[in-house]
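Lay summary. Proteins are chains of building blocks that fold into shapes, and those shapes determine what they do. In this project we predict the shape from the chain. Here is one chain we studied, written as its sequence of building blocks.
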Amino acid sequence: MSWDDTAPPPFVLLDDPLAYILAAHLRQRAVCTVLRRFATDRVASRAEADRVTAYLTGDLRLHHEDEDLDLYPALRRRALPEDGLGITLARLGEEHRQCAAMADIIGEALSARPADDTVHIYTAAGEAMQAYAASEMRHLALENGVVLALARIRLTRPDLKAISRGMKLRRGVDGA
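And here is the predicted shape, written in a compact code that computers can read:
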């Protein structure tokens, strides 16, 4: 994955919220790849560090709200008992909270010494980046393989429109 893969999905995808969420997941994977590189190289350019920090403190939080406030509740309403989604969605919501805490630690490490052109990644920060990336990759596999697959089957057109509207409102996009 390249650095270009960390760009936000186009807002036009908000009309198809499951496609937008999938694109956001691809972006998360790209950010994880960048974090692994930071941890391995033990350095990052200030521009890269700032870009990742902005993602972790901004867009990632919006993405989690998209899922926690819109997607997961809609799925809970539509899922059948045999889907067994209750425990899975509760676990994913808890992982979002854990992810936010890890993202704060990583953001602090990447924001240290803002006047420096190069950010030095110390052992503890590198370990946090590796742990975060590994956790996120498992999380994304579950969301893509189970949650989004069931969402495509269970959610109705009105459900998808409501999810789209919530996502647009969070981003201040017209047409919400």
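What the prediction tells us: The first strand starts at residue 43 and ends at 45.
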